[in-house]
C-alpha cells in the first residue's frame, strides 16, 4: 500500500473546527487518535487530536482552540463509529480534558488482542498487513511544542489514516474465528464512564507507602522529599522525575545527607545541587523531625476469597493458552475480584455480575460456576 498523501488539514480556529465537525457529522465512521505531553509536563494534557475520514486527515490543535465542545456530539453519537488504536488511554485523556462521553467504538488493538496477535502495536500491525512503516520515535516527542515538525505531523496523521483498512481486516478475522461478539462487548464496556484519578500535588509519596524495605521514619522523610518535589515540578511544569529521580530519594531516605557536600554521593548533579540542594536538605530535616506517616495497608482478603481468585486465574490462564490469547481476554480483570469476593450461586446471578459480557457468560458460565463450587446451577 504505497501512496502519496496530501497534507493533513490543520484545525486551529473555531471556523475550521466547525467545518471539521460538519464533515465528521456526515460520516458513518471516523478514525481518532490523540497525542499528549505526559513526559514533558507536571499535569499532562491533550496537545493534538487527529481525525481521519475516507477523504481527509485532520489535526486539531487544542492548545490554540481551548474549547472543543463542538466535537462532543460526534463522540457521543451512536450512529458514528469511532475507530481508535489502544483506545483506553485516549478515552481517559479526552474525558479528563474535555468531558467527552463515548458511544460506538472499535479498538483495533483490542481486536488484535482478541485474535491472539503476539504484537499489537500499530506500527507492527500496519507493517505486517500493509507494508506501512512508522517512525515510533515521535511517541516521546513534546507535543505541546509549536510549531510541530514535518516529521511529527506525518507521524500523527499516520496514526489514523490507515485505521479504516486495519479495522476492516481485523473485523473479518474476528468474524471468521467467531470472536466478534467478544470484541463488541469490550468496545461497549470501554465507552462507559470510569472516573480518572487526578494527580494530587504532594501525594506522590503514596506510591512508596507499601514498600517493606522502608521504615516509617524513612517513609516520612521520603514523603517530605516528594512533597517538595511535587511543588517544584508543578512550578516548573515538568514531570517530577525530571526534577530528581525516585531512586535518589529512596537512597536519601535510608541514608539522610546532612550537608550539600553529601548530596553528590547520593547521585545529584552539580546543577541539581546548585538549584535545589538547600531545599532538599531542608525537606529531609523536616521529615526527620515530623510525626510518622501512616503506612498504607492493602485490604486483606480472606483465605476463601484468595482461593477462589487463584482458581479463576489458573482457569483463565490455561484456557487462554489453549486459545492463543492473553488470560484477560477470557475473563477481563474487573470480573475477577467481583466473582471471587461475592461468588454467584446461580447462572442468573453470574449473568448479573457479568451483564456487560453476556457472550462470556454463555460460553464460559458453566465452567466459572463449577470453579466457584456451584453444583447443578440453573
User: What form results from the Cα inertia axes?
Assistant: flat
User: Biggest sheet: strands side by side, in what order?
Assistant: 1-4-3-2-5-6
Number of helices: 18
Rounded average pLDDT = 93
Report the uncertain regions: none
* Helical fraction: 40-55%
By CATH's scheme, which homologous superfamily of the largest domain applies? Ribonuclease H-like superfamily/Ribonuclease H
Number of domains: 3
Q: Order of helices and strands, N to C?
A: EHEEEHHEHEHHHHHHHHHHHHHH
Largest sheet: 6 strands, mixed
- The appropriate CATH architecture of the largest domain is 2-Layer Sandwich
Radius of gyration: 25 Å
* CATH level 1 class label of the largest domain: Alpha Beta
Report the β-strand fraction as a percent range. 5-15%
Enter the CATH topology name of the largest domain.
Nucleotidyltransferase, domain 5
* β-strand number: 6
Distance between the termini: 53 Å
In terms of structural class, how would the helical and strand content be classed?
alpha/beta
What does this structure look like?
The protein is of the alpha/beta class. It folds into 3 domains: 9-191, 2-Layer Sandwich (Nucleotidyltransferase, domain 5), CATH 3.30.420.10; 204-289, HRDC domain (DNA polymerase, domain 1, Orthogonal Bundle); 303-371, DNA polymerase, domain 1, CATH 1.10.150. The chain has 18 helices and 6 strands. A 6-stranded mixed beta sheet has the order 1-4-3-2-5-6, sandwiched between helices. A hairpin with a 4-residue loop joins strand 3 (46-52) and strand 4 (57-60). Helix 5 (108-114) packs parallel to helix 8, helix 10 packs antiparallel against helix 11 and helix 10 packs across helix 13. The longest helix is centred in the middle third of the chain and has 21 residues, at 216-236. The protein is flat, with a radius of gyration of 25 Å.
